[in-house]
């Protein structure tokens, strides 16, 4: 356990080297919230509610969903694995005295903690500069359940991106997979628009898949909506995480023995 903790600490400290990346992440997040502020301010106009949201609730949703989407940097995992497999340096990870997937989970933990504190500070500053009533549930049980849901969601996203990365063993070039995934994730997780605005039939289908529970449901639950779905979300996300854990183990075990990459 201590070796994985060391990996997390190393990658947490490493983020201090790439300060420009952190600044750009913060700018993107604040810009997204500002855009939502202007757009939904115009849509609401003199209306008190739109699709069951008040303006403060809608903005609170965007603040929370932006935070959750920005602390998930697991997309880099697929790109890193793919690049290392193709240039032969992935062999250095295969000889580490730790599980490859667990290594990437520990790595993600370190980067998530760093970005989490930075982004939280930026959000506090934003709410000071643009004072808007922040809507948050008063139930500590829901808040704790959402934290569990978010943790499992981040774990699922690591496993998904790890899965896409190791597909390079089989397909060599997975840039198309990564591009499609990046473009879809923002929409199907509710990071662009609240999924409640979509037709009911589409939402029912999306509830069968994990993405509904990664960003959208935690954000909704924290503003006092869809709270009865949190436990279901934990079960569904845990099931999908277990599924990908098994799939990743099988694929890695099958194709690693065919990997002839060299280089450390």
Layout of helices and strands, plus pairs?
Elements: H1 2-14, H2 19-44, H3 55-71, H4 75-87, H5 91-94, H6 100-129, H7 140-166, H8 168-171, H9 175-188, H10 200-206, H11 216-222, H12 230-255
Helix pairs in contact: 1-6, 2-3, 2-6, 3-6, 3-11, 4-7, 6-7, 7-12
Can you characterise this structure?
This protein is an all-alpha fold and 264 residues long. The chain has one domain. It has twelve helices and no strands. Helix 2 packs antiparallel against helix 3, helix 3 (55-71) packs antiparallel against helix 6 (100-129) and helix 3 packs across helix 11.
User: Helical percent range?
Assistant: over 70%
Major pleated sheet:
none
Radius of gyration: 20 Å
DSSP, total strands: 0
Low-confidence stretches: none
Strand content: under 5%
What is the arithmetic mean of pLDDT? 83
- Spatial separation of the terminal alpha carbons: 25 Å
Quickly give the structural class: mainly alpha
- Total number of helical segments? 12
- Give helix and strand order, one letter per element, not per position: HHHHHHHHHHHH
Number of domains: 1
Query: Per the principal axes of the C-alpha atoms, what is the gross shape?
Result: globular
């Amino acid at each position: 356990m201590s070796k994985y903790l060391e990996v997390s600490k190393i990658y947490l400290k490493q983020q201090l080297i790439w300060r420009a990346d952190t600044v750009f992440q913060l700018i993107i997040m604040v810009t997204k919230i500002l855009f939502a502020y202007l757009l939904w301010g115009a849509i609401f106009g003199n209306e008190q509610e739109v699709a069951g949201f008040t303006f403060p609730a809608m903005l609170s949703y965007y603040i929370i969903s932006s935070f959750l989407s920005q602390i998930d940097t697991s997309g880099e995992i697929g790109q890193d694995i793919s690049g290392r497999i193709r240039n032969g340096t992935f062999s250095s990870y295969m000889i580490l005295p730790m599980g490859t997937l667990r290594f990437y989970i520990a790595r993600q933990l370190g980067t998530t903690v760093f970005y989490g504190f930075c982004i939280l500070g930026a959000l506090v500053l934003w709410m000071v500069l643009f004072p808007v009533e922040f809507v948050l549930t008063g139930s500590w049980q829901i808040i704790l359940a959402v934290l569990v849901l978010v943790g499992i969601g981040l774990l699922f996203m690591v496993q998904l991106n790890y899965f896409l990365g190791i597909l390079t063993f089989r397909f060599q070039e997975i840039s198309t997979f990564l591009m499609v995934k990046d473009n879809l994730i923002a929409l199907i997780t509710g990071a662009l628009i609240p999924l409640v605005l979509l037709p009911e039939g589409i939402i029912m289908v999306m509830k069968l898949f994990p993405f509904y529970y990664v960003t959208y449901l935690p954000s909704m639950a924290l503003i006092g909506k869809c709270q009865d779905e949190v436990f279901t979300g934990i079960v569904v996300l845990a099931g999908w995480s277990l599924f990908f854990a098994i799939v990743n183990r099988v694929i890695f075990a099958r194709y690693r023995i065919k990997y002839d990459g060299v280089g450390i």
